[in-house]
Amino acid sequence: MSRNQSQLPRPFVYAGMILLVLAMIPPAVIAYARATHSPLPRIQLQQDMGVQNRFDTQQANPMFRDGRAMRPRVSGTVARGHLREDEHYYDGIVGDDWADTIPIQIEVDRAFLERGRERYDIFCAICHGVAGFGDGMVHERAQELVESGRHGTVWVPPTSMHTREVREKPIGELFHVITHGARNMAGYASQIPVEDRWAIAAYVQAMQISQHADEEGDS
Amino acid sequence: MGRYHYVFPQWTNKLVVLLVLGMAVAPIYVVFVVAYGFSPDTTWVGYKPEQPVPFSHKLHVGQLGMDCRYCHTTVEHAAHAAVPPTQTCMNCHTQILPESDKLLPVWDSYETGEPIEWIKVHNSADYAYFDHSAHIQAGVSCVSCHGRVDRMEVVYQAESHSMAWCLECHRNPEPHLRAPDKVFDLGWTFEGSSQEKDDYHAYWRDANRIQPGQDCSVCHR
After folding, report:
1. How far is CA A86 from CA A89, A91, A104, A189, B21, in A?
2. CB contact under 8 A, A57 and B44
3. One domain, residues B18 and B127
4. Which of A163, A197, B136, B208 is the most buried (most CB within 10 A)?
5. What is the third-level CATH fold of A87-212?
């Protein structure tokens, strides 16, 4: 009896143990949540004004048929100050022919060519290769896919920048290819601003000259 | 037996000690659970929504070596990092794997002109102002805020993006600063002694005169 008196009654012991076990659940859940990824929506304890009744850039708006909150420009219209009259600058054309000079509003210096190199590496090198020989990573991979015949891949190899045909293209035509594409190559007008396209065209020519320095010298 | 009715049994002494202990531990426990459980590090980090197209950065960036700017074209000069339009995918996918089932929603979008409904992963509160270009121009790499996207099969939120997190870097941006050509190279790390590393970061801080604001009006405008 005296031993029993100094010992906690069983129900208390059980209750305590259950409590301890229950207390381990929240930390376990927290540790799990921290260690894993989940597609469940993020938990926002206080909404504050974090989600305001407005449309953000690129958000969806069910009011429009295409679901875009950002409205595309009405086709056939031109915003003030955006009329593209300068054929040389916007199309690479002078008179009836491809331009073979860079438009005068562009300042051609080292920084311009550097910019061209950087932009070429971003937008062109994946297909045409860093040195322009048509051996970019995407080309290599696409070639393998053609061989294995997976999911109908058809691939026209990206043209080497160092073929006679491409080397003879005036800079205006290169600009035009970047802008509108050529046969199986898509145009890059929406991804690259006009001036950067000129920079790439200038860099492509610089690259061609550097690869054919000996030949030029010989002839 | 009867006389014990009016005396607490001996075990209550133990119970009192346990209760006092419990009352001391409980607040610590609650603070711990609230601090860790309700922190954005728990509630936000790791958010990984299922996207309508199983687009993989690991494949396109990690393996094919594409630059972030090929798709996120606005990130250098605008506040918003644009998610690419369908046309960007079609630069390649009209020819590469055109019959893949995984690309069906892309073809739908291409043909109807309706955008693919990508689920937004990172989403700052609407009352906070964030600007990508300011950070990219300052030489802060995507990896500081988005983690190793080039290794993600599906994009998830790697950093908390809470106010405390923004401020932590605004108070000490130096370790995050790099040369402009390394900003898009997520795997890059400085190689050299820790002294050289500090000098490198300090150099880029001085070169760009980096002084991130900590006033409320910088981010709440």
Report:
1. 5, 8, 11, 16, 83
2. no
3. no
4. A197
5. Cytochrome Bc1 Complex; Chain D, domain 2 (1.10.760)
Q: Which residues of B touch A38 (CB under 8 A)?
A: 46-48
Q: Please indicate whether, in this complex, the C-beta atoms of B48 and A37 are within 8 angstroms of each other.
A: yes
Rg of chain B over all Cα atoms, to the nearest angstrom: 26
- Residue contact A6–B15, C-beta within 8 A: no
Domain count, chain B: 2
For an interface test with B, the pick among A7, A122, A144 (most B C-beta atoms closer than 10 Å) comes out as A122
Contact residues, A window 72-111, toward B, CB-based 8 Å cutoff = none
- pLDDT tier at B133 (50, 70, 90 boundaries)? very high
**Is B62 within the bounds of a domain?**
yes
> Can you give the pTM of this predicted structure?
0.87
Please tell me the distance in Å from B62's CA to the nearest CA on chain A: 11
The strand pair at A93-94 and A97-98 is best described as antiparallel
**Distance in angstroms (rounded) separating the CA atoms of residues A189 and B153:** 29
Higher pLDDT, B127 or A147: B127
Q: Which positions in chain A touch B32 (Cβ < 8 Å)?
A: 27
What are the start-end ranges of the H helices in B152-193? 163-171
Q: Does B98 touch chain A (CB under 8 A)?
A: yes
pLDDT one-digit tens code per residue, A25-38: 999 998 988 888 88
